[in-house]
């Protein structure tokens, strides 16, 4: 087991693979409201990302165990899947946000305290290292079920690394 | 001692499988008695604050304790047909006359003669032996969840989790939600046993997962102060340097095993199936055991997710109703076909493969009548 395998086997994505791909850059950089990134590389019996998607962007599953596949043309960045996914594996990234160095991430969040709009937070990568600061733009609870969708302004260069935030007390 | 009670169907255990079996049997017209040893119905569901996987049919995206509430609401609609005894333990099955003895609390004893029985007794936690594991601060994951999610008590400040199956991963996440620090998760295998996404959730909050590691000993004088962990090789022998981890709680999440004493007592044909985590009853596609009056469902039939337990409970419920001649046969067939399809779907993934291998070792099509 090499280092990469070790990381992946402990729940850290190290490269794109089936069920965990990057959106196409050309479409992505001009897509207002952003596109979804789903990191769900294992076959498990779960399909709410598909059944909850209002535009059909998460393609129909042949088998409920299939990894999600995305039709990016149809994705509106609405972040419904971010709110619904039981695995907290959906993230929306809007590259059109702010100036050329910033982007907006819509991240699932279930910890306390709930982040406050306008406040600065730590942005953590897939192994929990703080790699930048971000600014909380909006905090929503779309399904009224205690899963927050937090809109955070982050450095554009870090969108493929940042996967959660930590409230700084 | 009071006289012998009667019931058409006795369901033992009010967790996801037992509740589902009771509901299904009642919906087909059976009179049901449901006994559960706990103070509240719902079994382990009431402690599950995370959202469930599955499809809409299994209420995917709904938190476990909400699913329990939904089932109890459904049960409320069958008050006329389902009699519930809480804090009630089924203590024995008597083969000579098919009587089950039960005790409510510690002193109210009764005997009941059911037409049919569904054993939905769930599972027991496994533990690991290691030096100092007698010290206060070593918990099973179930106890940690009970303290935290039923009684609202944080078990400690900093937890070392042993086991990266779904329970170890989910309980770690729930502990963090409760403001408790996770010192790390130790896992003997070379990958997490639970869903990868559950692991990703705790990893991105900075929790280390030590693959191919085991707990060597607990540290502490009168209470737990930490643990020594160490890497292990292919033969599970310790190699490499020991790592000291500071923690005031060691939480064991190293697996479950089916609770099957009553099935043994009843003389059901039992078989050891490693993929199902212990001894389980041989069963047919209706979840009927080799004993013509006993069905089994949920973790008691083999360790699996609660979503599968609920569907198995439904199948057992149809099974008992069918054998009692309740409901019409086209309805039975329709429901069974639907439930079997859902089970097959739930078992189609990476984790489900193992379950299916195990089921092949203990399933017959239908017992000869």
SSE layout:
The complex is a heterodimer of chains A (169) and B (369).
Chain A (H helix, E strand, L loop, with lengths): L2 H7 L15 H5 L5 E4 L9 H5 L27 H5 L5 E5 L7 E8 L10 E5 L5 E11 L7 E8 L8 E4 L2
Antiparallel strand pairs in A: 1-2, 2-3, 3-6, 4-5, 4-7, 5-6
Chain B lengths: L3 E9 L3 H12 L4 E4 L28 H13 L5 E4 L2 E7 L4 E6 L3 E12 L3 E3 L12 E3 H10 L7 E5 L3 H12 L3 E7 L8 H8 L5 E3 L1 E7 L6 E7 L5 E9 L2 E4 L3 E3 L2 H5 L4 E4 L4 E4 L12 E3 L9 H18 L5 H18 L3 H11 L9
Parallel strand pairs in B: 1-2, 1-6, 2-3, 6-19, 8-15, 9-10, 9-15, 10-11
Antiparallel strand pairs in B: 4-5, 5-6, 7-16, 12-13, 13-14, 17-18
Helix pairs in contact in B: 1-2, 1-7, 3-4, 4-5, 7-8
Can you walk me through this structure?
The complex is a heterodimer of chains A (169) and B (369). Chain A has 169 residues and is of the alpha+beta class. Chain A has one domain. Chain A contains four helices and seven strands, in the order H-H-E-H-H-E-E-E-E-E-E. Chain A has a seven-stranded antiparallel beta sheet. Chain A starts with a helix and ends with a strand. The mean pLDDT of chain A is 97. With 369 residues, chain B is of the alpha/beta class. Chain B has two domains: 4-124 and 256-360, FAD/NAD(P)-binding domain, CATH 3.50.50.60; 131-252, FAD/NAD(P)-binding domain. Chain B is built from nine helices and 19 strands. Chain B has helices at residues 16-27, 64-76, 141-150, 166-177, 196-203, 261-265, 306-323, 329-346, 350-360; strands at 4-12, 32-35, 82-85, 88-94, 99-104, 108-119, 123-125, 138-140, 158-162, 181-187, 209-211, 213-219, 226-232, 238-246, 249-252, 256-258, 270-273, 278-281, 294-296. In chain B, helix 2 (64-76) links the parallel strand 2 (32-35) and strand 3 (82-85). The mean pLDDT of chain B is 96. Chains A and B meet through helix 3 of A and helix 5 and helix 9 of B.
């Amino acid at each position: 087991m090499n280092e990469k395998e070790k990381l992946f086997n402990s729940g850290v994505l190290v490269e794109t693979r089936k069920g965990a791909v990057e959106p196409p850059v050309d479409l992505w950089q001009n897509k207002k409201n952003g596109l979804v990134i789903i990191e769900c590389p294992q076959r498990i019996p779960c399909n709410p990302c598909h059944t909850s998607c209002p535009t059909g962007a998460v393609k129909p599953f042949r088998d409920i165990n299939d990894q999600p596949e995305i039709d990016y043309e149809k994705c509106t960045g609405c972040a419904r899947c971010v709110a619904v996914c039981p695995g907290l594996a959906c993230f929306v990234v809007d590259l059109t946000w702010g100036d050329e160095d910033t982007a907006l991430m819509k991240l699932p969040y279930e910890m306390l305290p709930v982040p406050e709009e306008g406040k600065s937070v730590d942005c953590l990568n897939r192994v929990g290292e703080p790699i930048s600061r971000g600014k909380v733009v909006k905090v929503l609870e779309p399904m009224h079920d205690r899963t927050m969708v937090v809109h955070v302004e982050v450095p554009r260069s870090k969108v493929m690394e940042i996967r959660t935030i930590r409230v700084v007390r | 001692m009071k006289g012998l009670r009667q019931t058409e169907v006795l369901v033992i255990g009010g967790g996801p499988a037992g509740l589902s079996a009771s509901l299904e049997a009642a919906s087909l017209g059976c009179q049901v008695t449901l006994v559960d040893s706990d103070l509240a119905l719902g079994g382990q569901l009431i402690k599950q604050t995370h959202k469930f996987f599955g499809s809409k049919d299994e209420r995917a995206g709904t938190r476990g304790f909400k699913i329990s509430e939904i089932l109890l609401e459904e049960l409320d609609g069958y008050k006329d047909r389902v009699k519930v005894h809480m804090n009630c333990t089924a203590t024995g099955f008597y083969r000579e006359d098919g009587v089950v003895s039960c005790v409510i609390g510690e002193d109210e004893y009764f005997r009941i003669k059911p037409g049919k029985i569904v054993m939905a007794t769930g599972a027991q936690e496994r533990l690991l032996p290691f030096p100092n594991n007698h010290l206060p601060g070593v918990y099973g994951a179930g106890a940690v969840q009970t303290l935290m999610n039923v009684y609202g008590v944080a078990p400690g400040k900093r937890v070392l989790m042993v086991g990266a199956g779904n329970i170890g991963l989910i309980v770690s996440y729930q502990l963090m939600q409760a403001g408790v620090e996770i010192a790390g998760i130790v896992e003997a295998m070379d990958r997490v046993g639970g869903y990868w996404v559950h692991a990703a959730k705790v990893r991105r909050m900075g929790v280390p997962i030590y693959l191919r590691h085991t707990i060597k000993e607990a540290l502490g004088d009168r209470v737990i102060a930490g643990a020594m962990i160490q890497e292990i090789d292919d033969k599970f022998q310790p190699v490499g340097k020991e790592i000291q981890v500071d923690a005031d709680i060691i939480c064991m999440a190293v697996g479950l095993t089916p609770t099957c004493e009553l099935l043994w007592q009843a003389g059901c044909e039992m078989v050891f199936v490693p993929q199902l985590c212990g001894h389980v009853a041989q069963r047919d596609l209706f979840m009927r055991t080799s004993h013509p009056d006993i069905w089994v469902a949920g973790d008691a039939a083999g360790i699996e997710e609660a979503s599968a337990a609920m569907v198995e409970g439904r199948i057992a419920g149809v099974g008992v109703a069918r054998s009692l001649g309740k409901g019409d046969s086209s309805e039975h067939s329709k429901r069974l076909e639907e439930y079997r399809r859902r089970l097959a779907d739930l078992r189609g993934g990476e984790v489900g493969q193992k379950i299916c291998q195990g089921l092949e070792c203990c399933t017959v099509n239908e017992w000869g009548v």
